[in-house]
Amino acid sequence: MEHKERNMQKDNCWMLAAILMICGYFVFTSCSSDDDVVKTSEQGAAIRAMLKSLDWGTDTTYVYGHKTPDADAVCSSLGYAKLMRALGYNCKAKVSSATNRETAYIAGEFGFSLPELKSSVVPQTRLILTDHTDYAQCVDGAREAIILQKIDHHVEGDISNSNIPYVRREMIGATCTIIYEMYRELGVRIDDETAKILLAGLLSDTRNLSMTTTQHMDSVAWEALVTQLHLEDKVDEINRKMADAAINYDGMSDSEILLSDYKDYEIDGIYFIYYGEGTQAVAEAIFGPSLRTGVTYSKENLVRKQIVPKIIEILQGGR
Ligand SMILES: [Mn+2]
What we know:
By secondary structure, this protein is α/β, with parallel strands linked by helices. It has helices at residues 2-22, 31-53, 71-86, 101-110, 175-186, 192-206, 216-228, 235-246, 254-260, 279-287, 304-317, and strands at residues 61-64, 91-95, 116-117, 126-130, 146-152, 166-169, 270-273, 295-298. The protein folds into 3 domains: 2-53; 61-242, Alpha-Beta Complex (inorganic pyrophosphatase (n-terminal core)); 265-317, no CATH class. The structure holds manganese (II) ion (MN). Manganese (II) ion binds at residues 72, 131, 153, 174-175, 205.
């Protein structure tokens, strides 16, 4: 579908180029940049039309990342709420549970305010979800809320897309990269504060472009944001300090440590701990023989986003 649209846009580009040539204009710019401009403005117009058609109601629409938010969850909600406000929609970012130390560090370093905590919403509240796609990760009350949009980079979860007017999912390194793309498509200027917010989420989720989930678009966004903020000489150190803050467990209880970032782990291969009936067969089907009871090991660098589809595949194959 998307491929078809791209082809159509390409055809439109060539048609436009052909018309310009017939009219006797000389086109000096390369075709690829023509293509980009046409594609960007067409997508921007389509998104603006979509936004206009949404049932926004009269109250504030809340933008939420997932529970136990990491920097990408927090920053994608902040960045997207700002984008919506720039276009005239009454949106505000919130967090559904406490932010982590990495996010606190980067917010202090870059000087932006974190969203207020609001752990539940009343029925019929309008929501925009960023960086998650499962009800288990949503703010409490989300099942009775009206979800207007979902912007995410995870494999599909249990939130049905059929009732959500706008869903955008790209399998790239960070949700903040998708938000960056949308600013560009919509022609909304990225001020320095927004650039810092988007870069924070991008650095965290791609670990400064080093994670295996990193895609070309993440590098494009990284380059533009780092250049705008003149951080070429500092970005590596900032990333290192973010990573240090993410694993700073001083003064935390065992359960706080376990729950502080239970979503993504990436450490030269992954120990996969399983417990309960039938789990050994699933774990061994994915990662091979157990090292000892309850533990398998992956030689590959994997993150949760890559493991979950493998588990689903095995479970569905066994039905
Ligand atoms: Mn993310």
